[in-house]
Amino acid sequence: MSDLGDFGDFDADAGTEDGSAADAAGSSPSSSGSEGTTTDGVTDDFDATTVEPSGEDAGIGTICVSQGLRVAEDGDETTLRAYVTRGNRSSVRIGSYLLAPYPDGETLFCRITGLEYAQQYHADDATEIHARRAMRTDEIDEADYKFVAELEPVAVLYEDSAERNAASDRTQSDDGGELKRRMTDRVPKPQTVIRQADDTEEIKTGLKIPDDGVFLGHLSVGGEKVRTAASPPTIDYRLKDDYDAGDPLVFRHSLIAGGTGSGKTHGAKNILRQYLATERTYPMADGREVSPAVVQFDPQDEYAQMHDDNPDLDGEFARRLEREGIAYGGHDDTTAFIPKVGSASYAAGHHRAEQVEFTIPFSMVHDNPWLVAGSGLNDNQYGALTTVLLPRFRKQYGNGGTYEEFTTFLDDPALREELDESGRVHEATFDAVRRRVLGFGHVFDQDARPITDLVHDFVRPGGLTVVPTYHITDSRATETIVLAVSSLLIDQKLSNDPDYDRIKETPLVLGMDEAHNFLTDADSVQAGKVITKFTEAAKQGRKERLGLFLITQDPQDIHDAVFKQINTTVVLNLGDEDAIKSVNIPSNLESKVPYMEKGQMVVYSPDNSEPVELIGLPTCLTRHGRD
Question: Which pLDDT value is given to residue 162?
Fold first, then answer.
């Protein structure tokens, strides 16, 4: 077989020694193609013809109808495609936002869901000649191929004004009417010129992103920030946070899910810092505007660092934050409330926040008996504890009875025999209860002030309270402390006759890291009581100004009753398929989750915006990480 290089080196005179064959045929046009020689020696000039249309391109392509043009209520029946011109093909990405104007001034806001090359002509390019020719050139010739983008209509943008500038293909008319959106209810015209969305107002309106609220990150597509012609060029994503736009989403509850190393804690700190901004307040029933209190349970002892400034946050970055209205810097009103557990000691060389020790008084068990029940009581045993043993102990020792006194009370053989003979508690049931309530001696009534005496300091408007449990090695003790304190806050928030007005009258964000350890689906009576309590808290949170802020790497382990009350889900990188499925985000974003880099996230908040992809801030707004 002849080498394909012969095609490039072909010489018309190569067949003869003196070129007579070529002479006999007459001289051919020169290789330049711009001039030729006639038989009488006269040279003619030929004008070069261009195939490029005159003028400048106004967009990146046009709506095409080669495979249909249809907009339907059922998204699966919608057919909307656009031809993208050669010069724009490298700049488009799946997920990019585009605009297709209607003749009357309204605009279709859509996003790219698929990209494909299609044959321009009937030809077979799977040949040796095509392949080897491509292998010997540095450029790719796209002239023989069509580049088509599949589009998903998101919304129709229109102006709410008396007059519209129908001649403009922009959505902002001369009279400055307010830009609004509605569901897609009309089809664009064939050959409509499409352009990339590059205006902040258009994009925010199209995606239903509020202008003001709690900052989460910047809008992105495929891991790259969406850029506009404005200053700053990025598009900030915020959660609704005032009653003019409905209930603040902080009281509709949030979940942050992400694997190890995904930037989960970094992102959580940045969000919580916005709730602690000086200007952030919420109206109470009595007409007062009150700053929220944030209580954060911290199993890894990382959130008390929010007291301190981040030394890596430089002046230029700080100015950018100020221009975008993002709160930053250490929060002075940060206190670490340290649970006193046996001989466990707490070391705090990594932060400068104030430290206050506290203990769980056994008196709290009377209102929450499952705290002392361990994890294995059945219905019969739990009933014996709550209806017989605890009431009798309380009657005998009063409200101030201690855990040590309770264990002594259960050690009385006469009590066991009496209850068995009376038929109130079988001796086997009595023994089972006694075994399971033992082992809490290092948890209750330690040498520190009871948490019930510290409520006024624990819940502070505008203050951050951190409850670290990293120093506690006993998981049973950790669970008891976290659930005891959170139950105190929830019970007082939901009560119509609270013992602590401070809790009732203060907006509260209750943060819980590793929430899957406390809100898991389990068969025990105690787990059921916990789930019921948190479900009620989630349901009534809007009314009582109580917001749950849950953080987990195992979202699939959080009970469905609680999960269903979550309105805002922030998903960072997750590698587990079950975890990804459990967060219930749209499939087009779900497929991106395993490949997201640190700080990339998907936000699914139906009452706030369309599902979107974001990039969080590269620098933590407070101190983060240990030296």
Answer: 46
Give which of 454, 517, 508 is closest to 483, Cα–Cα: 517
Domain shared by 354 and 472, yes or no:
yes
Predicted local distance difference test score (pLDDT) of residue 169: 43
Express each pLDDT in 131-183 by its tens digit: 888 888 877 777 778 999 999 999 999 998 644 444 444 444 445 578 999 99
**How far is it, in rounded angstroms, from Cα 254 to Cα 563?**
10
> 351 and 278: one domain?
yes
> What is the span of the domain harbouring residue 65?
61-167+175-186+194-208
Amino acid at 198: D
- CA 477/CA 80 separation, integer angstroms: 59
| Mean pLDDT, range 343-349, rounded to an integer | 89
Contact between 570 and 216 (Cβ < 8 Å): yes
By C-alpha distance, which of 572, 467, 442, 571 is closest to 518? 467
- Chain centre to alpha carbon of residue 458: 29
- Which of 416, 437, 458 is the last residue in one of the domains? 437
Q: Are strands 145-160 and 107-119 parallel, antiparallel or unpaired?
A: antiparallel
What the block records as the tokens of 339 is: 């649970």
* Residue 551, phi-psi category: left (phi > 0), alpha (psi -120 to 50), beta (remainder): beta
Return contacts of 72-75, CB within 8 angstroms, 24+ apart: 75/152
CB-CB contact of 217 with 121 (8 Å): no
The set of residues, in sequence order, having a beta carbon less than 8 Å from that of 512 and lying 6+ positions away, is 296, 297, 482, 486, 518, 519, 548, 549, 550, 551
* Three-state DSSP class for residue 89: helix
The answer on 458 and 421 residing in a single domain is no
Give the separation between CA 522 and CA 561, rounded to whole angstroms. Answer: 12
Distances (CA, A) of 68 to 79, 116, 187, 503: 6, 16, 11, 61
pTM metric for this prediction: 0.85
Interacting residues of 97 by C-beta distance below 8 A, sequence separation 6+: 109, 110, 111, 154, 196, 197, 203, 206, 207, 221, 226
For residue 215, the surrounding DSSP H or E stretch is strand 214-221
The H-or-E segment that residue 582 falls in is helix 577-582
Q: What total number of domains does the chain contain?
A: 3
**DSSP tag of 171:** S
482 and 410, same domain (yes or no) = no
Residue 465 pairs in a beta bridge with 295, 335
**Matching residue, tokens 């020719």:** 133
Per-residue confidence (pLDDT) for residue 166, from 0 to 100:
42
Terminal alpha carbon distance of the chain: 68
Q: What's the mean pLDDT in 73-96?
A: 91
